[in-house]
Amino acid sequence: MRVSHGQIFFAGITTMPAIYGMLIVRKKTGAVAFDMEPLCDYFIDGELGGYHYKGNGQVYFAVVHTLGEIPPDSEMRKIGLFESLPDALTYPILRDYFEIAVQKKQFLHDSPGNITKEAVDMKLVQATKQDFQRITRFYRDVIARTEHMDTYSRWIYGQHPTDEMIRRYIQANAIYYCEKDGSILSAVAVTQQGEEYHGAEWSASLEDDEVSVVHILCVAPEWQGKGIARDTMGRIIELSREMGKRAVWLDALACNTPAHRLYASLGFQKRDQRRWYADNVGWTDFFLYEFIL
User: Fold this and answer.
1) Neighbouring C-beta atoms of residue 94, cutoff 10 Å
2) pLDDT digits (tens, 9 = 90+) for 253-266
C-alpha cells in the first residue's frame, strides 16, 4: 500500500518506556518521520472482548509527518484516515484517552505556525541546471543568517559548500529542495556511496549504487526548529526506498549536536567515527550514521 505524505494523528498504548514506544510505532506502521510524546497514564480493570483485563501503562500521542510502507511483519494490514473515532476500537474502554488525542490534534491544527500543516503543503523538487542561481543563493542566505552556524555546521560558502560542488550535484540530478508558495524551505543533496565511506563499520557491506548518501541538508532560517528538516529527511528516506536502495548513510561533524539529535530521532544509528579534512574546518572528527531500509 502506498501512503502519501500528510499529517496523521493517533494515540497508542504501551507499558514500555518512550524509546520502545517510538520503535513500535516505526515497526508496526512504517512511520518514517514523527514526533511522539506521552499523553497520560492509564489503569484498566474490566471486561475486554469477553476477557477480564487488568493492567496499566501509558497512552502516547504521535504526529506522523511521513509514512512509508507498512512493514511486512506488522499485524496491521491497512492504515485509514478518519475524521472521527471508529466505533470498532480494539480497546473501547480506552475511548476517553483517544478523545484526549483528538482534542490535542485540534489544538495543534488551530495553533499559529503549526508545522505539520506547512509540511503537508511542501513539494519535493529535483533541481535542474536552471535552478543553479536560485539554489546557490539559498545556501548563501542560510549560511549568512543561521544562528550558531560557526558552532555546529561550521559552513563557509566558497569552502563548503561551493558553487562547483552545487553545480556538480545538479548535473548529477542529486539536488532536491522542498518548496512552498514559490519559496525554498530546505535543500539537500543525495548521491550514491563514495570511496570515503568504504571500510566504515556499517551494518552490511553494500555496493555503491545500493546506498543513498545525504549531503548539505539545510533549512531556511525562518523555518528552522519547526520540523522541516525532519520532514525533508523523511521524504528522502521514502524516495530512497522507492529507488530500491537498501540504506541511507550520512556523516555529520562531531560538534553538530542538533544534527545528531535529528538523525537519532529519525531512527539513524551511529556506526563509525572518522577524522577527515575539509576546507572549512581542517582536520576534524565526523560521525557516520546509517538508516536501513
Assistant:
1) 16
2) 999 999 999 998 88
